[in-house]
Amino acid sequence: MAFLGTGNMGEAVLAGALAAGVQPGDVVATARRDERVAHLAERYGVRTTSDNVAAVAGAHVVVVGVKPKDVGAMLDRVATALAPGAVVVSVAAGLPLSFFEQRLPAGTPVVRAMPNTPALVGAGVTAVVGGAAASEDDVALVERVLSGSGHVFRVAEKDMDAFGALAGSGPAYVFYVVDAMAEAGVLLGLTRDVARRLAVETVLGSAKLLDETGEHPVLLREKVSSPGGTTVAALRKLDDGGVRAAFLDALAAARDRSRELASEHA
Ligand SMILES: NC(=O)C1=CN([C@@H]2O[C@H](COP(=O)(O)OP(=O)(O)OC[C@H]3O[C@@H](n4cnc5c(N)ncnc54)[C@H](OP(=O)(O)O)[C@@H]3O)[C@@H](O)[C@H]2O)C=CC1
Ligand SMILES: O=C(O)[C@@H]1CCC=N1
Questions:
Q1: In this protein, which residues make up the domain named Pyrroline-5-carboxylate reductase dimerisation (predicted)?
Q2: Pocket-testing residue among 3, 4, 6, 9, ligand 1, by greatest number of atoms within 8 A of Cβ
């Protein structure tokens, strides 16, 4: 397996692949900076290089993990060096399968994926969709490799931007909420350490409760909200602040930006 551009997301997918049973000796990961390359070699025991053309030689699965603006140049550089039948996996936001298929040799199987950073700890969600030349076996292979990162969903390509807006970017919204809750605790006089720990544990516990009971979030929210009590007083302030509407706008903005990335780099 080759990882071309192993930054925040590439590293998380790499960690998942190793968790899924891919052997470190069968992986080569690239980055530009010496310290990044050294970190990857030291942390994961994989082969590393900054030479992308050398990295793809003999690789059966090639994960392209650079920023959307850098993907075109990366593909132009490595296209003719790909091993026959190599499956190219993109994690780039916005860029459609056709972007890859136009730049790679005819018949190259391409799988578009949208992971998220909790993949680093095996708790990610990833959407996948195969391109015109990707066989069922190709997509299943990529699903197996990604399954070490957490849950994998097959989606239609038209839903990729929405999936990215919800789950790809989603961890950032949760971290934003955790930070805001912790800050609010500090405002009420808690120490920073305690406030942050309480916010993290509350999010963890609430996610576990949702997951394990399978109950609708509205029902669980009602169970916290005593009539005339403290929670309804707080929720009213969130409604006053337009938090729910802001989430609707925020995800639409992420979806729109994903579409723009596709047209900016077409
Ligand atoms: N971050 C996220 O949560 C998610 C990101 N994505 C997608 O993942 C992709 C990467 O994003 P992210 O990981 O955040 O970005 P990063 O900047 O963290 O990672 C990009 C990596 O690419 C490396 N790189 C850039 N150019 C080259 C090159 N020519 N040769 C070798 N390596 C190169 C950089 O190396 P160096 O570090 O040495 O500069 C860096 O490590 C994007 O396309 C994004 O849309 C998708 C889902 C979620
Ligand atoms: O912000 C971004 O563009 C990437 C894609 C999804 C999460 N991070």
A1: 157-261
A2: 9
CB-ligand 1 contact for 10 (6 Å cutoff): yes
Query: Whose C-alpha lies nearest to ligand 2, atom 8?
Result: 169
Instruction: Kindly identify the ligand whose nearest atom is closest to the C-alpha of 12.
Output: 1
Mean pLDDT of 162-171: 98
Sign of the Cα torsion 122, 127, 133, 135 reads: positive
| Phi, psi at 4, each rounded to 5° | -100, 100
41 CA distance to ligand 1 centroid (A)? Answer: 17
pLDDT confidence of residue 96: 97
Ligand 1 atom nearest to 93, measured from its CA = 45
Confidence of residue 212 (pLDDT cuts 50, 70, 90): very high
pLDDT at 266: 81
- The reply to whether ligand 2 has any atom less than 6 angstroms from the CB of 125 is no
